[in-house]
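Q: Could you fold this chain for me?
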Amino acid sequence: MIGLGLGVTAGLFVGEPMGVLEVVGDIFIRLLQMTVLPYVMVSLIAGLGRLDYQQARRLSLWGGGLLVLLWMIAFAMVAVMPLAFPPLESASFFSTSLVEPGREVDFVELYVPSNFFYSLANNIVPAVVIFSLALGAALIGIERKSVLLDSLDALGDAMLRVTDFVVQLTPIGIFAIASAAAGTMSVEEFGRIQVYVVAYVAFSLITSYWLLPGLVSALTPLHYRDIVGVSRDCMLTAFATGSSFVVIPMLAEHCKELLRDSAVEQGEGEALVDVIIPASFSFPHAAKVLTLSFVVFA
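A: Sure. Below is the predicted structure, expressed as structure tokens.
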């Protein structure tokens, strides 16, 4: 928080020269991203491979149902958000030549990996997740898997140690990102979208700090304060870097700590965390659905 506040202040008062710190912010984000995709692969394979068929079936049913519930909540927020926009009447000349053709998305390549190493090298997250889920599911029925799972656990712990070191640099990285952004953004750019920014921030805060934590605390033995406490650092880092992908290892580790403190059965609980968090990132979760509100605003 101090790094963010100082960064915004420095950017506003110094201005354009703070743009040179953008490279520092880029280095920080790349260091955070460095171990995320390998961690996603390792945690998915080990987490799913440690379950039995009954646990995996229960995970798919409850996890899928929860994902649908989050979609419904997010779509309801998107439908309500336009009520916060002021009425606007404008007229302008329109021509199809002004519209740039959108880049087509190859969903087959995105979700079905023909070459796993290509997907891993090109940061195609859904394809890596599908491969890891398939390999983890295949391990469920194999008896001699303990050696492999122990090795994957050790590799995952090593990646977390690297991530922990990079996280110590967060105040510096956030200061660089905030100062470069505040120093290079013009008032006109912000003025065009300030209504949307204010509305989106308000709805995001309501969802993040009231609706979703309240839902979790109502349906589980976990307390509201504990849920917000473990997610605070992750949300701040994701906000400052503009990427929720980089905080997947942090979020998984914090969730495991929350389970340990709550005296939940650790074996199955931690395995479920290793599966749910990386897998859910590859599907439209509530935050991704909420960004559709910009289409309504535009």
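A (continued): The CA atoms of residues 17 and 183 lie 7 Å apart.
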